[in-house]
Amino acid sequence: MRWLMGGQVYDVDKGSFRAADVAIENGRIAAVDRGAKRAPGDETVDASGLWLIPGLIDCHVHITQPTDDGDPRAAASRTDAEVALFAAAAAERTLLAGVTTIRDVGGWNYVEMAVRSAIQAGTIRGPRMFLAGRLLSITTSTADYYPGMYEVADGADAVRAAARRQLGHGADLIKVMATGAMLSSETEDSRAIQFTLEELKAAVEIARDNHKHVAAHCHALRGIHNAIDAGVDSIEHCTFADDEALRKMVAAGTALVPTLCAGEMLFRDPAAVASMPEFLRVRMAEFNDVHLATIRRAHELGVTIAMGTDAGTPGNHHGLNVQECVILARKAGMTPAESIRSATVNAARLLRQSDHLGSIDVGKHADIVALRANPLDDIDELARPTMVIKAGDVVRDDRA
Ligand SMILES: [Zn+2]
């Protein structure tokens, strides 16, 4: 048994801290107790003066995607070996930043599956991973930008087969492109519908039959409606949603994964902006404020928001994931407690992992981040973890 002694432990549901010691056994939380009795031989970690929150969960990552170059085509010709080395390093950076779980919604030739296996075997360090494999898309010129990521399927039967192929590779969810993308070819329109309602329903059918969930990339309004109507579990981006669509998400229990970092982090990185093709730069700038306003409105209307960054897009570097929580609190109208909820319990629910992840409670994985100050007072504290614990193992320790 290992004890984290003397810290302030965060209760995600109450939105408050209390003094407690945390016992960890076999990678899980065995007790959350004040002044608990320890057995001889128990190991202790001094957490006095530290603020302990659950390990954070990022529901929208592309762990195989490099972020330095503003031109998405620059990454298209990489070998799988190069991708694997990059993804392993990106996974470690992500974990050390306090993100102990990620959901990858578009990998690269299933290299991310091998990275997950190496993490599980303890060969390399990285977060828990829930993986979509390749994302499913209609025939589009953008598939040439991301040849390792796109699985083209036209028609409901082809979508069923493509979804089954992802599951065969070990996917935990199915990702579908309901509308055009932003970081896409010049001819692709983010306001265009891609998969039809029938095709989306086919993806949901296969996922449901296999106890998996579905994430739908959506910018265009009608694509958002189609995805909700098809029964997907999360809308990614949700850029052009109106009140009617957002209310429909509340009623259906559809989660929203905001990915505000995709726009916000790009414009904090001058090198990424400078190397971005002009038409993409214009597009990204044009829609960033619209996106922010939609996420703010979604929160006002009570849509469940699950934190996701789109880490892997230009300037949106792996390991800076918690900036999404900061942006949600500073620009989208959330309190710090709501922002932390989005990256813990809400994300865990979307992953169907509520019994295992998302809070510091007995029986859950001992994934814990220690901060030097109260993040409810300053959300930026999330970006300064002093200790990161995954499955009870201290993987980062800056206390000294
Ligand atoms: Zn994405």
Keywords:
8-stranded mixed sheet, 2 domains, 17 strands, 400 residues, 4-stranded parallel sheet, TIM Barrel, 12 helices, alpha/beta, binds zinc ion, Urease, subunit C, domain 1
Task: Find the CATH topology of the largest domain.
Answer: TIM Barrel
Profile the largest sheet.
8 strands, mixed
Radius of gyration: 20 Å
| Parts with pLDDT < 50 across at least 5 consecutive residues | none
Assign the structural class, choosing from mainly alpha, mainly beta, alpha/beta, alpha+beta, or little secondary structure.
Answer: alpha/beta
Average predicted local confidence, pLDDT: 97
What's the CATH superfamily of the largest domain, by name?
Metal-dependent hydrolases
Proportion of β residues? 15-25%
- Summed up, the domain count is 2
Annotation, overall tally of beta strands? 17
Q: What small molecules accompany the polymer chains?
A: zinc ion
Give me the CATH architecture of the largest domain, please. Alpha-Beta Barrel
Q: Give the overall silhouette.
A: globular
Q: What kind of oligomer do you see?
A: single chain
Helix proportion range: 25-40%
Distance between the termini: 23 Å
Helix run count: 12
Q: How would you spell out the order of helices and strands?
A: EEEEEEHEHEEEHEHEHEHEHHHHHHEEE
Q: For this structure, what is the CATH class of the largest domain?
A: Alpha Beta
